Amino acid sequence: MSKDQTLDDVDRGILRALQANARVSNAEIAREVGLAPSAVFERIKKMETRGVIRGYETRVDPEAVDLGLLAFIFVRVEERPGVAHAGEVLAHIPGVLEVHHIAGEDCYLVKVRAKDTRALGRLLNENFSAVPNVISTRTTVVLHTLFEGLAREAPAAAPEPAPAAPSNFHEPNSEESSRG
Asked: How many other β-carbons are positioned within 10 Å of the β-carbon of residue 13?
């Protein structure tokens, strides 16, 4: 099976349950999606084999491990088009969580965690400046995170149409509204 095969509603239900809690039991998922636990197990294994499910991870509270500062760094590099050498180097810097090759003035958007602003400064001065072909960086420090996690799926059904205007509602026509 290839990764590009479409997922049905049951597969999507299984994925939603696993994204909410990767430790949920197959029996609990089975109750949610209306299958036997063995069928859920088989579907999960198939999605793992196809690469739809890439792995399972533990999300740790950054404050608990003294990495309370979150920042996004825009990195501009001078590289030939199609070459992502700097991005690969950036991905191996301690504290880097994500590296995205982006369109626009900058070349990469890097998500990092550090203990504090002093540690972030060291990260930039010692690590980012040592990456070949880096021309500049712009850093945005996060003050407060409102939501962090996987994208929420759109509703399975189309949204309900807007309710009709009440019967006593009168919308003026253009002639009425221009009379003042």
From this structure: 19
Please classify residue 11 by burial: count the beta carbons closer than 10 Å to its beta carbon, then call 0-12 exposed, 13-18 middle and 19+ buried: middle
Is this prediction's pTM over 0.90? no
Nearest CA to 110 out of 136, 83, 144 is that of: 136
**pLDDT by residue (tens digit) across 125-180?**
999 999 989 999 999 999 999 988 765 654 433 344 455 545 554 544 444 444 44
C-alpha separations of 82 from 25, 87, 102, 109, 136 in Å: 43, 11, 12, 16, 19
Q: Could you tell me the domains of the chain?
A: 9-50 (1.10.10.10), 62-141 (3.30.70.920)
Give the tens place of pLDDT for each residue, 67-123. 999 999 999 999 776 666 899 999 999 999 999 999 999 999 999 999 999 999 999
Separation of alpha carbons 37 and 39, rounded Å: 5
Q: Where are the alpha helices (DSSP H) in the chain?
A: 9-20, 26-33, 37-50, 85-91, 117-122, 174-177
